[in-house]
UniProtKB/TrEMBL annotation, chain B:
PROSITE patterns: CARBAMOYLTRANSFERASE
Pathway where this protein functions: Pyrimidine metabolism; UMP biosynthesis via de novo pathway; (S)-dihydroorotate from bicarbonate: step 2/3
GO CC, any one term: cytosol
Binding-site positions, L-aspartate: K86, R169, R224
Organism: Paraflavisolibacter caeni
The protein, known as: Aspartate carbamoyltransferase
UniProt entry tagged with the keyword Transferase: yes
Aspartate/ornithine carbamoyltransferase Asp/Orn-binding domain: residues covered: 155-303
Reactions listed under catalytic activity: carbamoyl phosphate + L-aspartate = N-carbamoyl-L-aspartate + phosphate + H(+)
Amino acid sequence: MVKCLISNLIIKHLTFFIKYIYTILPRKRIEYLLLCKFLGLKTLLNHQQINLTIKRLANQVLENHVQLHNTVIIGIQPRGIRLSDRIVAEVGNEINNKEIQYGKLDITFYRDDIRKEIHFPNQTDITFSIEGKNVVLIDDVLYTGRTIRAALDALMDFGRPEKVELLVLIDRRYSRQLPIQPDYTGKTIDSIVSQKVKVLWGEEGGDAVVLD
Amino acid sequence: MALSTRHLLGIKDLTAEDISLILQTAQQFKEVLQRPIKKVPSLRDITIVNLFFENSTRTRISFELAEKRLSADTINFTASGSSVSKGETLLDTVNNILSMKVDMVVMRHSASGAPHFLAKHIPAAIINAGDGINEHPTQALLDALSIMEQFGTLKGVRVAIIGDIMHSRVAQSNIYLLKKMGAEVIVCGPPTLIPKYMEEAFNVRVEYNLQKALEWCDVANVLRIQLERQNQVLFSSLREYNLVYGINRRLLESLPKKITIMHPGPINRGVELDSDVADSDQSIILQQVENGVAVRMAVLYLLSNRQ
């Protein structure tokens, strides 16, 4: 009985340890995915599905913004950037690589929880004015909506946009703390607070969205 | 991620990680200062008092601007015209201000260790804006940011600190910081203005010959002769000091490479720096001032987190 308990404990700690190691090593994402399967983590989107979803999202953006005339794309640091890079590349392909106005926005200084915790800022890189432009804001997972609230505030400091739209890969339904909804959604999921949605951007074949 | 200290009393108490964190955060704030609206709401609910018991232009304006750019509420206090002249003690003054619900204190005082004393007795976060001849941490941080912008790194950069080392808090903070970040440092000046055990205490080389120091270095950080702190004659005249330790164009042109000139201000033109050097393209004195706001925003931001 005691032996059984101890070995259970060891296995539990080992799994945590392995999971931790694999999350900090980006090169090993593929193995991490196999591990997720082994540990029973649910894969929400696999590599191929993510590719298709990104293509669809890019096309939807183009549907509403013909030739991206007067439209700028802004990714939210740090986790929205991988997605916005891909969207910009896809959109660029469709419109024959016409110059796209693409910026990166860090929202650290606009967060509403500075009294609780200090967050470390990332780079903001918006070299153009967004005055009178249509803005497509991009982030990977929409959860409480607080990041987007901060992003909207941050955005207004770069000018008064004509219109702001939100594009997300994953929309965690029924968990919003603010009245914010996406305009373009990759996949809508139902999850509980204790669950974590992770978007993994790996090398070739390693992208996935998993539920932890 | 957070700083290892609650106060910024001196560079001496910071780790290399703290310094990198402040400098990286400052770089992001520099970008904020380029925006059409140069203001972020980070410290919206925080009140900061600027306690200046000693004269200051740059540091006070720079701190005040940094606080306003972070949306903090600010109160300015100068010793002249306050109850200090009626004999109120430092601790009483500060406690009275704090009882009006102030969260952070930025302080300059002519007594070395004054902010350290306060830190022991009051609950608010304290930022040292210069204490006597001890430290001036934000100046060292902005100097480091300016050097990093020029050279991309601090590691291996050769810095000569020239002038009144004895009375300079800027020199002391700079030496601590540059040493922690892996830069090479020498100090240069007349023997009467360099403390006796400099080499042993700080592990820096001392060079009495200005020409040799300038030939060796990549950056010359020229300090002001602090006449207000000198109560004895340490060199015969300002003119003589200028002839031996003043930096002029002719001297810079005789060097094998182009070096960068820094000065913490205010400049005594014609004493430690001649105008043709201070206003040349080799001098980054005004960039230093610009970086000062970003560095102070970073320090205030990183120290503002208290439950």
